[in-house]
Amino acid sequence: AIHLRDYAPPAWLIDTVDLAFDLREGATLVTSRLGIRRNPARAGEGPQPLVLDGQDMELLTVAVDNRLLTSDDYAQGPESLTIPAPAGETATVEIVTRIKPEENTALEGLYKSSGNYCTQCEAEGFRKITYFQDRPDVMAKYTVRIEAERAKYPVLLSNGNLVDQGESADGRHWTRWDDPWPKPCYLFALVAGKLVHIEDHFTTRSGRDVTLRIYVEPGNEDKCGHAMESLKKSMKWDEDAYGLEYDLDIFNIVAVGDFNMGAMENKSLNVFNTKYILARPDTATDMDFLGIEAVVAHEYFHNWTGNRVTCRDWFQLSLKEGLTVFRDQQFSADMNSAPVKRIQDVQRLRQVQFAEDAGPTAHPVRPESYIEINNFYTPTVYEKGAEVLRMYHTLLGAAGYRKGIDLYFARHDGQAVTTDDFLAAMRDANPDVSVDWEQFRRWYAQAGTPVVEGEGRYDADAKTYTLTLRQTLAPTPGQPEKLPMLVPVAMGLVGQDGQDLPLRLAGEDAPAATERVLLLTEAEQSFTFTGVASKPVPSLFRGFSAPVKLRFAYTDGDLTFLMANDSDAFNRWEAGQTLAAKIILGLVADRAAGRDMVVPQGFVAALGKALDRAGEDTSFAALALSLPTESYLGQLMEVIDVDGIHAARDLVKAAIGRTHRNALLKAYRDNADTGPFSVSPEAIGKRSCKNACLAYLMAAGDEEGRRLCLEQFRTAAGMTDVITALMLIADSDMPEREDCLAAFADKWKGEALVMDKWFSIQAMASHPDTVKRVTALLSHPSFSIRNPNKVYALVGGFSSNPVCFHAADGSGYAFLADRVIELNALNPQVASRMVKAFARWRKYDGERQAAAKVELERIAHTPNLSRDVYEIVARSLEG
Ligand code: ARG
Ligand code: ZN
């Protein structure tokens, strides 16, 4: 394992890198000329050897200052090359390696995707291209020459500016690129292939004309428009919101079909998974369109938060990822509906990050050790990291936050820094803000989700309301003891008339606001509000002001009241979710005790009210109508009752569908017409509201609902409507089920991303035959175990199927273990992402635990187990 405490600056700096790629089938030659210099930070230590990282390559020659070394001169390890200390303060090192990108199934380093070469270097892929100090605190200026056969690879791209190009012998051609900005090697990129592009322009506020291009495989040119619009919006937004401008004359995006993650922010040459670029109304859903907007923005924003200022080491990953996710969340909130975006972000945080925080792979936002850094591109580093940024924003206010950001760039532009440096900039830019920053730092250091228990006491005589908050943080692996966190609690008190009351704490005489941020810093703290005329209902953690779990003894009446009256949209939604969870878990308990499950009419009626208000804000209504997911409900149980949760949730859905049949049909029809296709918040809202209604009608087995669903599947023009209908049909027992699935596959067999949806729908259907079907689909002509998107759709889809993956007979676990073992040999990163579905195995009953353990041990005993999979399996078996 690698530990944060062992960090030491490199003995040598690399100022310049001159790379030459000779791309050839079977053997690609890479020549690397490095201009190195002793690191002044380690002066006085005497001559130090140059230790370079490298793996999976053939080393051909090494020369220092133009003198060829013999193999006796240097030491080659399985993952390193040690060159004896050069005599001078500076030296030139030239290394030639041979690599085979065609055989690279791990999709890390230089690899081929449908005939085109591309790279993925973050985190440590550059060491599979050439020997190098593969660490982000080594920042250099790059020049790159790429040569390849012209007919097969007409497009040859790298970072920075195209400075020269020409023909060479045998039908080959070359380009030369120069990137003026120093960068760590993880931001290096190369693309070579038969690609077409669309082009647009953006003029920065200081007048720089930037050429924007999106490169795709021929045939996809008509699916790039939304990504291009998103890019231009991002560039404008970053100028307006952060004062950050683009710094080159060219910005390229390349979309590739085989990509482990979503996308990569390589300097001026972003490489994207096609999933986050390609969209046409008939092929992509509203969620896809929004995902593209967010990821294009995310990668663009990295140009400053990640590239201009980068990470000192990989423990600091959240320095760039938490910040950049927060920035893309702010951007999407500004482009669409802010409350809807916030709710969706919190849903995701709870679904995946809270689950991670509660299991054996829990780790702090700034981890302290890792075996394989690729395992730490997690919801904790990304999404919880973004919550930490949001808390700075809450504590400092928009203006104070911006002052901190400005100071961060003033101090650190061009540097590789730490989350402590970031915190220091925020603190130093806001000397008047009284926050205990040492305590705030614990958000980076302590893993786990804090639980805040609250209690309110109203004193009718004294007209005071006392809110008592207690926080606890459970032990996580390696962290048995925790200290209290600094928790910002944005809150209000809702009076009996539904209006927010003025908030004046005892002893204050300043004018009272109706909303404020309390700072919970102790294990237990009380806040007494004065002049409270009647008993209020507290609205706590408005806008989800801290990533915690709140436990407050609200009555069903309080929750219904907040659903209707809270001035904070997030908490109106939250009250409904809390109530729904309470009702469903009550039914689960009834079922477990052998009692009949009876859905309380009060809850069904409260949901009906949300339906009545659907016309006001359709997107919000769709969210207010949706029930907590099975996996989130599972997190609320000591031992997850897989079948009980499924049965109870289905029963509630059916009751809502039956009781509100007419209102649902009406809302469906009211929102059916969204006019000419648009992804405006209004149009998306109408579709999501309509489809939420359809889901309830289907859950109730309503005849008219089924008819509408079939009709929607057969006639809708947009993919959102088609796929929602197909999903509902696939999940039902309708006789048309197989025909609809077959018709869809027949229509879309040529569109890889659409077929991904088809695979995942079947993998997530809660049918008893799902595991069989998924096994059969592994041999479908459109499936490939080597394509990450396909694996995420079919295997990942299945592992998120709450009932079928956790089938009591262990068949789901055995299926997943087989795939993990198969993927381990091909693509360790993808294998590791898949094996994480086992991590929470101890939360299930004894029979399931036993079945999961057998599979985890089987994986653990696989020969040549990758570091990636080993780390997750070992932690899962330990924790
Ligand atoms: N920095 C990229 C992003 O946030 C993610 C790349 C991660 N890749 C990996 N193999 N770990 O968009
Ligand atoms: Zn990122």
UniProtKB/TrEMBL annotation:
Residue ranges constituting the Peptidase M1 membrane alanine aminopeptidase domain according to the UniProt record: 227-433
EC number: 3.4.11.2
Matching Pfam families: DUF3458, DUF3458_C, Peptidase_M1, Peptidase_M1_N
Entry GO MF terms: alanyl aminopeptidase activity; metallopeptidase activity; zinc ion binding
Cofactor field: Zn(2+)
Keyword Transport applies: no
Stretches assigned to the Aminopeptidase N-like N-terminal domain: 79-187
Keywords, comma-separated and alphabetical: Aminopeptidase, Hydrolase, Metal-binding, Metalloprotease, Protease, Zinc
Peptidase M1 alanyl aminopeptidase Ig-like fold domain boundaries: 448-551
Catalytic activity, as annotated: Release of an N-terminal amino acid, Xaa-|-Yaa- from a peptide, amide or arylamide. Xaa is preferably Ala, but may be most amino acids including Pro (slow action). When a terminal hydrophobic residue is followed by a prolyl residue, the two may be released as an intact Xaa-Pro dipeptide
Gene3D superfamilies to which the protein is assigned, alphabetical: 2.60.40.1840, 3.30.2010.30, Neutral Protease Domain 2, Peptidase M1, alanyl aminopeptidase, C-terminal domain, tricorn interacting facor f3 domain
Gene Ontology BP terms: proteolysis
Ranges for domain Peptidase M1 alanyl aminopeptidase C-terminal: 557-878
PANTHER family according to UniProt: PUROMYCIN-SENSITIVE AMINOPEPTIDASE
Function: Aminopeptidase N is involved in the degradation of intracellular peptides generated by protein breakdown during normal growth as well as in response to nutrient starvation.
Protein family per UniProt: Belongs to the peptidase M1 family.
Protein name: Aminopeptidase N
Species in which this protein is naturally found: Aerophototrophica crusticola
